[in-house]
Amino acid sequence: MNFQRYLSAKRTVDDRALNQRVEARLADELRERARRPDCDDLRVLEVGAGIGATLTRFLSRPWLPDRVRYTVLDLREENVSAARERLPAWAAPRGYAVRRAGDRHAGNRFLVGRGRRRVEVEFRTGDAFDFLAETGREFDLVVAHAFVDLVDPADALAAFRGVLAPGGVIYCPITFDGGTIFESGGGGADSGPDSAFEERVVSAFHDHIDAGGDSRAGRHLLSLAPEEGAVLAVGGSDWVVRPREDGYPADEAYFLDCIVEMVGGAVEDEGLDSDRLDRWTDRRRDQIESAELVYCTHQLDLLVR
Ligand SMILES: C[S@@+](CC[C@H](N)C(=O)[O-])C[C@H]1O[C@@H](n2cnc3c(N)ncnc32)[C@H](O)[C@@H]1O
User: Fold this and answer.
1) Residue of the CA atom closest to atom 4 of ligand 1
2) Which of 45, 81, 106, 286 is the most exposed place for a label (fewest CB within 10 A)?
3) Does residue 194 sit within a domain?
4) Which atom of ligand 1 is nearest to the CA of 10?
């Protein structure tokens, strides 16, 4: 599996899933901030930014303020370099000019401009928690897209709040919340021969997430956030991937292949019968090939003060 291609294939799935009400509330917060007389550049920190899909999504939004300083941070250098390389290719056809900025962080800072909009983008490789603990900087917006379920939500929330400027907000879209559904097409319920086994696969997959993160991160963030602040908006952002008449849209068949691989790989040491697991992955792969598989995941988008 090519992780960067997986993240690229995930973009259209996320585009459909993102909760527009939560995003509209984020837009309202940023407009409100822009009205303040002392308002300076919007300082954004994105942790677990992958190949930079949220940066380009934000650049395509009319609500993004004209002056932004955006830090793209990911643990893996191959993701950060993919983000850095993809930005100019994404920007040019959309009328954005991209040029390198300054010498101090040679190669890691870019200026992205179009009309009145000027976005200074800094690419960084490193652990989010190390950065959050060590940076002396403050941010007006911390973004964690498809990230909080990989870590401890309480630790993440505390660390994010530690770098927030007064009035700042935290945006956590596509936060996994404990629902993984595989369904085959044909209009009926999925009563395939190994559906009972699949329940065990899904349960073991969630246990595997819990070993390093939190498979119910969405609801846990929702209950933790008001303890020291407020939830400004929350809403579902479930992934629904389904075939159309001509197959799956965009690169979503690849996305599904990766999901089946990730689930199968995550549970292979969880004590399940390995032959049945192989049959399960083969069957689900065949259903992707024949454009029959439907896949849903339950997630939440949260905007937190
Ligand atoms: C599920 S991916 C989401 C990527 C991106 N936000 C997106 O949705 O396209 C999670 C990302 O978090 C990164 N990551 C995991 N743990 C991290 C950590 N402790 N610090 C920084 N990044 C981390 C991974 O490298 C990966 O790119």
Assistant:
1) 50
2) 106
3) no
4) 9
Count structural domains, the chain.
1
Compute, in angstroms, the gap from residue 38 CA to the centroid of ligand 1.
33
Domain membership of residue 266 (yes or no) is no
The CA 49 to ligand 1 mean position distance, Å, reads 6
pTM of structure: 0.95
Q: Is residue 65 part of a domain?
A: yes
Tell me what percent of the residues of the chain surpass a pLDDT of 70.
95
Looking at ligand 1, which atom is closest to the CA of residue 147? 10
CATH of the domain at 97: 3.40.50.150
Verify whether ligand 1 is closer than 6 Å to residue 173 (CB atom).
no
What is each CA distance from 74 to 15, 50, 78, 122, in whole angstroms?
21, 6, 9, 12
**Euclidean distance between CA atoms 249 and 44, whole angstroms:** 31
Q: Over the stretch 270-296, which tens digit does the pLDDT of each residue have?
A: 888 999 999 999 999 999 999 999 999
Has residue 274 been placed in a domain?
A: no
Instruction: Measure 47 CA to ligand 1 centroid, in angstroms.
Output: 7
Out of 55, 75, 90, 214, mutate this one to test ligand 1's pocket (max ligand atoms within 8 Å of CB): namely 75
What are the structure tokens assigned to 206, written together? 């969630």
Range of the domain at 126: 3-177+212-239+295-304
- Ligand 1 centroid distance, CA of 7 (Å): 10
